[in-house]
Design brief:
Layout lengths: L2 H19 L20 H19 L4 E2 L2 H10 L4 H13 L4 E4 L2 E4 L6 H4 L1 E2 L11 H12 L4 H6 L3 E9 L5 E8 L3 H12 L7 E3 L2 E13 L3
Parallel strand pairs: 4-8
Antiparallel strand pairs: 1-3, 2-3, 5-6, 5-8, 7-8
Helix pairs in contact: 1-3, 3-4
Length: 223
């Protein structure tokens, strides 16, 4: 593989890592550019602009932006530039510490600081969130509140909608999203029912209630 192609491939991988770290849907395109691609082709530039827009949206919503190191972040957001240029930009960022505060892999704008523990969303914690009444109570709640869309009943549409949501520190449910849908009407009903849920027993880490990302399957069956 030529040097240019190798650089492009590595930086596509980095951009993928940055996207995954921030929950951004992104799949690098196969580069069909003839010659040494240094990331300046339209396809690479489009990928960079897309990630920039998604990360900016997270910042505007007050969310922390996770990166895979300073150099990786620069490479992901500035395209596949030469190694020397990335190194110079990296040095500039490290020297200009009054504008950016780095805590682990989370970069936070000092003008809008966020408490790391309070705002962080955990994937797995020592004590996972639990619906009051346990799994049996959760199934009973869903069965009692789900209203099967008549159109789906007539067409025999069934399946399992996978929801992604956050159980907040007070046990409330927020940021409900469809991770895997079945049909727009079933997806909408699953989100509606999830939004009606009473407060859960929140997840805890080291004895402290924390925000936890939670995946909830909602089954629709006509049997």
């Amino acid at each position: 593989m030529s040097k240019g192609k190798s650089i492009c491939s590595v930086l596509k991988t980095i951009r993928k890592q940055v996207a995954d770290a921030n929950g951004i849907k992104y799949e690098p395109r196969v580069c069909h550019y003839q010659g040494d691609c240094l990331g300046t082709c339209p396809a690479c530039e489009a990928e960079v602009r897309y990630l920039e827009q998604q990360l900016n949206m997270r910042r505007q919503l007050g969310k922390a932006v996770a990166i895979v190191g300073i150099s990786a972040g620069l490479a992901a957001l500035t395209g596949c530039n030469s190694a020397s240029k990335v190194a110079k930009e990296n040095d500039a960022v490290m020297a200009n510490t009054e504008h950016v505060l780095k805590t682990g892999e989370v970069v936070v704008d000092e003008k809008h600081p966020m408490p790391a523990t309070a705002e962080k969303v955990f994937g797995i914690v020592e004590q996972m969130p639990m619906f009051r009444g346990g799994d049996r109570g959760l199934k009973a709640f869903l069965a009692e509140n789900i209203r099967y869309p008549s159109e789906c009943v007539l067409k025999g549409i069934e399946g399992r909608v996978i929801l992604n949501m956050i159980i907040e520190r007070d046990g409330s449910v927020s940021h409900i999203e469809v991770k895997k849908g079945v049909h727009p009407l079933l997806d909408e009903e699953a989100v509606r029912v999830a939004s009606l849920m009473p407060k859960w027993m929140p997840g805890k880490q080291m004895g402290t209630a924390v925000r936890v990302n939670f995946t909830l399957p909602v089954s629709f069956s006509l049997k």
